[in-house]
Amino acid sequence: MLEVRDLHVHYGGIKALRGISIDVPKNKIVTLIGANGAGKSTTLRSIIGLVKSASGKVTYDGQDITGMKTKDIVKKGIVLVPEGRRVFSDLTVEENLILGAYARNDRNEIKKDMNWVYELFPILKERYWQQAGTLSGGEQQMLAVSRALMSRPKLLMMDEPSLGLAPLIVKNIFDIIKQIHNEGVTILLIEQNAKAALQIADYGYVLETGNITIKGTGGELMTNDNIKKAYLGEAAV
User: Fold this and answer.
1) 210 with 184, same domain?
2) Can you give the pLDDT at residue 234?
3) I want to staple 142 with a disulfide (CB 3.0 to 4.6 A). Which of 47, 74, 113, 121 is the partner?
4) Which sign, positive or negative, has the C-alpha torsion 124, 129, 131, 135?
């Protein structure tokens, strides 16, 4: 579905990505793990056109989307849930959801999708009238995911969905990610909670200072001694 080949991204003299290549097959969950500053967010922002690449190629469903405008990439079915939620604080829950469907004009289907996200996140249905800025951190993350789903994505990219959330809320978020995947949505996930990410991932990549250093299935990475030591808080055997 998505192919990234030899992608380079520079911020001035800083080489944020140094020729990475990743694949996201259809109907799979793929995760990128790594420390802060490794280039994970830059990868997602480059794929969706928010950051311009110095060189390399991004292909989606067989079409080269490198350099395409973000709004056109979104219309093709790629959507990003950004780090830090970034909901529209002064708008209500429902207004945020309606904005998520801005590129659509199928009013009846939009209503169906709104009912669907309310089923996924019942707390949002209870608070549809409430300003997004007054929600808790966990509720804002649920809203950010729901807003993205309102565009009916084929590929959902998520940047640190568990950041700053209580453990119980984190479990809920990951349960929802699995449920969204079961609905047929392909997922590319960035997550510092490497254990939680690898437990649900079909495939994973380890990103270090702009380079892919290790790749494999979620299970393979979970049992890799170097990853255990660096990211899972376990001593290498």
Assistant:
1) yes
2) 65
3) 121
4) negative
Does residue 232 have a pLDDT over 90?
Answer: no
Q: Do 128 and 26 share a structural domain? A: no
Note down the domain range covering 6: 1-77+153-237
Do residues 158 and 148 both lie within one domain?
no
Q: For residue 203, which amino acid is it? A: Y
Whichever domain contains 71, its CATH number is 3.40.50.300
- Of 104, 125, 152, which residue is a domain's last? 152
Q: In degrees rounded to 5, what are phi and psi of residue 174?
A: -70, -35
Mean model confidence pLDDT for the chain: 93
pLDDT at 219: 95
Place of tokens 């649920």: 142
CA dist., res. 32 & res. 205, Å (int): 5
Q: What is the value of pTM for the model shown? A: 0.92
pLDDT for residue 221? 96
- For residue 54, the SS3 value is coil
d(CA 106, CA 110): 6
Phi-psi region of 39 (alpha: psi -120 to 50; beta: other; left: phi over 0): left
Strand, coil or helix: 215: strand
- The amino acid present at 50, given as its one-letter code, is L
